Amino acid sequence: MHLKKNGNPPYTHNLNYLATQSGIYEKMTEEQKDTIDLIEPLNVEARYPTYKEKLMKTLSYERCKEIFQKTETLYQWIKKKLSNA
């Protein structure tokens, strides 16, 4: 939606901002918003070597699996919402 309005995608890693700009944030459940709040810092931290090492030490296999499942569920929901827009 942002792309349709402005011609270019926004240059940001801020998932809350992207969800708001696309018009889907207000349609999200609290659980979906919590998932965004959970994965947003992981996205930024994984991009930088110093943070990446610290991040890897704090995440267990089970925690990664849980985060991945929540992210996949959110991704499928967003994909469906945007294709209907």
Using brief descriptors, characterize the structure shown:
single chain; 85 residues; 0% strand; mainly alpha
Q: In words, what does this structure look like?
A:
The structure is a single chain. The protein is an all-alpha fold and 85 residues long. The chain has one domain (2-84). It contains five helices and no strands. Helix 3 (30-45) crosses helix 5. It is globular, with a radius of gyration of 14 Å. The mean pLDDT is 85. This is HEPN domain-containing protein. Pfam families: HEPN. It comes from Candidatus Scalindua rubra.
Number of E strands: 0
Query: What is the domain total for the residues?
Result: 1
Based on CA atoms alone, the radius of gyration comes out at: 14 Å
Question: In percent terms, what proportion of residues is strand?
Answer: under 5%
Give the topology string: H per helix, E per strand: HHHHH
Distance between the termini: 8 Å
User: Structural class of the secondary elements?
Assistant: mainly alpha
Major β-sheet annotation = none
Shape: globular
Taking pLDDT < 50 over at least 5 consecutive residues as the criterion, the unreliable ranges are none
Quick check: average pLDDT?
A: 85
Share of helical residues: over 70%
Number of helices: 5
Domain HEPN: 2-80
Protein name: HEPN domain-containing protein
InterPro entries: HEPN_dom (IPR007842)
